[in-house]
Amino acid sequence: MIEGLPDGVLLCIGLVVLVFGGEAVVQGSMKIADHFGMPSFLVGFTLVAIGTSLPELGVVLNALSRGTQESVDLAVGGVVGSNIANVMLVLSIAIILGATSESDKSLREDSLMLLVATGVVLGATLLGEFPVWMGLMSIVSMGA
User: Fold this and answer.
1) For each of the chain's 144 residues, which pLDDT tens digit applies?
2) 38-59: buried (b, 16+ CB within 10 Å) or exposed (e) per residue?
3) pTM over 0.70
4) Roughly how many angstroms between the first and final C-alpha of the chain, as a whole number?
């Protein structure tokens, strides 16, 4: 924490930085897509998705460094909960506000990857664990 500043002020500063940072990520990603002639959904699916997941990665690494099961459970719950919120809340609001995919093909591709990711989480839930091979499979599927 920054000494001397109330939590509410820090929260407001963080939200302002988040809004401007998010705008910079979107604008930069669009320029990258244009420069390389890539479809914007592909850039969103990879660069933007990875960039917005980095805070969760930091939380997981921090939790693992603490070595307690409670920390790990909290980190995994945060990652899964964040992704559920992204799909159910953020995507839903974007659709309500009129955002549409570039094409039916990109929507099908994105939906297929969502189903694969859901299958991995479901498999881990049914197994009662998330083995290393399943984590590797998840990383490889991001590149597919």
Assistant:
1) 567 788 889 889 888 987 888 788 878 888 888 898 888 777 777 777 777 777 777 777 888 888 788 887 887 787 778 877 877 787 778 777 776 655 656 667 777 777 777 787 788 888 887 788 887 877 777 665
2) eebbebbbebbeeebeeebeeb
3) no
4) 40
